[in-house]
Structures are given as structure tokens and as C-alpha cells.
Amino acid sequence: MLQSLLFVPTLRETPKEAEVTSHKLLLRGGYIRQNAAGIYSYLPLAYRIIQKIENIIREELNKIGCSELLMPALQPKDMWVESGRWDVYGKELMRLNDRHDREFCLGPTHEEVITTLVREYINSYKKLPLALYQIQTKYRDEFRPRFGLMRGREFIMKDLYTFHANTEDLDEWYLKVRKAYCNIFDRLGLNYRIVQADSGQIGGSASEEFVVLCDIGEDTIVYSDQSEFAANIEVYNLSEGEPSPDGKGTIKHAKGIEVGHIFKLGTKYSDAMKAEFFDKDQSKKSIIMGCYGIGVSRLLMAILEQHNDDQKVFWPETVAPFKVHIISLGKEGTEIDNQARALYQKMLTKNIEVLFDDRDERAGVKFSDADLMGIPYRIIFGKKVDEGIVELKKLADNTVTDVKIEDIDFTNFL
Ligand code: ATP
Ligand code: MG
After folding, report:
1. What's the total number of domains in the chain?
2. 314 in a domain, yes or no?
3. Model confidence over 390-400: pLDDT tens digits?
4. Where residue 359 sits, what CATH number does that domain have?
5. Which of 153, 198, 258, 265 most suits a substitution to test ligand 1, by most atoms within 8 Å of the C-beta?
6. Is the pTM of this model over 0.70?
């Protein structure tokens, strides 16, 4: 991709609305723009990252037998009355009327739609288990939208729902999804913890959250310094220094961002909405459910929060908007520029995701923009091109080395 064609409206000054580093960098770097409180456009750089996050999620979920679908955001009131949540959900539910004055909401989550959908189809234990997910825009009229993509009123979520004939099968799937989530967050380069959680609005019995550890997090987690014990403070109100409830170690506190939440729903929705099946012994039972969310747009910020040094961004290779950033410090028509273009063309033919800064800008501008883009490998074409040498900068370990153009190893960039 030619950088002159990429829409990246960077800012010199940090907008006052941004309080946290990742939000500042996303605005300054031309990744996102606010449309109204908690409602954002994802500009090309951000959208490339979001698509990579989504594809990692898809790969890990498809691997364990989940299939993807897409349900409507616009949901009729009837379903919500049937589940009992129309009144319970409160002001967070975005409600609206159509021209015939029929009431709708914009989905904050999709238990009602999916339960209505599968109850038509699942009538026998033979059709279970089933695992369906979507990646979609969700709406929640949050009391306090803030920190950019962290708490939006319109945001992207991956939501998965599983259906089972018995609790053993739910337990088995819950663990499978939990493992898939670990693979996802590992691949995204995150430092996170799995904590016991409160089931909140969605309901059900057991639930755990995946929490990315960082100071700007809105959640407080309590954890043992010597075991796997960790919980949201909403579940165990423990003070620092207390003995851990599992008898191992003492309690510490940490701040974190909730990026995923997994629930054993049980029969909360299937009872209310009569989603039933005939079991092996011909008895009629409610379908047992699980539901599992990942905050896709929130993840973009969480990853950035763990991958910046205040002024500069360094995206993990798995989600970076491009793999290689070629920067030419020569004007168009010079030997330096010709050589840079030649390498760019060669990389394109090898299907490397490469961005070429072909803009007629000063070196300082090119470098400061590149620092906000955080592309893992940067190749700089400068004075030494005469000797056939360029600079290769690897952001992950902050190293710069001189390399001969003909020695550049393309396999690093695939
Ligand atoms: P929170 O406690 O942060 O409000 P939640 O418990 O309401 O989250 P879930 O209903 O479990 O969230 O939604 C699944 C995931 O969607 C969350 O783990 C989170 O990553 C993401 N998410 C929830 N609300 C928002 C929001 N307002 N903006 C961006 N992402 C969100
Ligand atoms: Mg919430």
C-alpha cells in the first residue's frame, strides 16, 4: 500500500478529551475519530487491526467446532418481554419505535435472538451440542462512555452461544472455549488473568472474566501472590494483605480491563423462552446454554495500552496493520527513492503486507508518523543506499542494523 493513498489523519496536539495513553495515541495516530460520545469511526489503520483480531478469534473458535453467523442488531420488544429482560435491562438498552409504533431495541447482546432462532430447530438431543457465534456491533447506552473504545455506546463484540443436552457437556464445552480464549489472548500478545466474576445482567451460574492487567483498567481484581486464585473484587471483597481464600499466599490488588467474559447460563433463557428438546429417554427438557463474549473494539485499546512507550506504538506482529514499513528519504526520481520503490514492488509480489511512505515529506515528519503506526519492521532508505545498504529497525526489541539490500530476508515478513 502506498502511504499517500492511506487515510491517516494524524494530529500534532493531543485532543483534550483523551485521558489515557492508548486513547491519546489512537487519536493522534489517526486511528479513530469520535462521532458522538462513545461512538467512533474506525479509520483504515484501526480497521486493519480490528480485522486481524477478528480473524484470530475466528481461527480459534472454528478450530473447536463453532460456526459463524450474523444476527440482526435491531431486535423486536416481544423477545425481550419473553425473556423477562425488557424491564430489567433498564436504561442501558437503546430503545426505539418503528413507523407503526412497534417497539424495538438495538441489541446489547443476543441471547433472545439466538434462543428464538435455535428453538425452532433443536427438538432432539441428536441435534446437540451446537455452538454459534457472530462478530457484530452492539449498542449499550452506557451511563459514562469513556476512554475512547474502552466503554463505547456502539462497539464491536464477538458473542458465542453454546447449546447442550446436559451439564457435563456444558462443562466440557466451557473448558474448550476457555482454552480457545487463552490461545486468542496469547496470540494477541496480552498479559492477562482469568478471574472469577459476577454474572450481572446476563445471568446464570458460573462465570469468569479475562482481564488485561494495566493501571487504567476500570475493574479491580484480587489475586493471590502464590496461586492461580483471582477474582473480580465484586465477587470477593478482599483487602490487600489478607490470606488468600484457597489458603495459598496473600491477597494483592491489581487494575485491569475486562476483554472477555464466559458464562454457564444453564436454563435461564431456555426456561423463559421455552427452548426445549426430547432427551434419549423421551422426556422433555430445557436446553442448557453457555455464552461467551469478547470485546473486539475494546481489545484494540487494551493491546495498545500494553504496547506503547507513551510516544511510540509497537503493535504485536499478529495484529499490526502492516508487517513492513519502507521509508524513503530520497525525493522522487533519486537513486534512493528508486531503490526503495523497487524493494516495495518486490515485496508486493511476495504478498508481504508492506506500506511504502512515498509522501513528499521531511524525514522528521515521516519518522514521527511511523512511530505512531508501530509497524513491526521498518526499512529506511537513506544515504547509504550508494553502498547498497539500508537500515532495518525491529520495533519489538528496538534494534537498528545496517543490511545489504540483497541480503534482506523476506521470510521474516511473511
Ligand atoms: P463491563 O463490566 O465492562 O461493562 P460487561 O460485563 O457488561 O462489561 P459483557 O456483557 O460480558 O460485558 O460483554 C462482553 C464483552 O464486551 C466484555 O468482556 C467487554 O470486553 C466488552 N464490552 C462490554 N461493554 C462494552 C462497552 N460499553 N464498550 C466496549 N466494549 C464493551
Ligand atoms: Mg457493562
Report:
1. 2
2. no
3. 999 999 999 99
4. 3.40.50.800
5. 258
6. yes
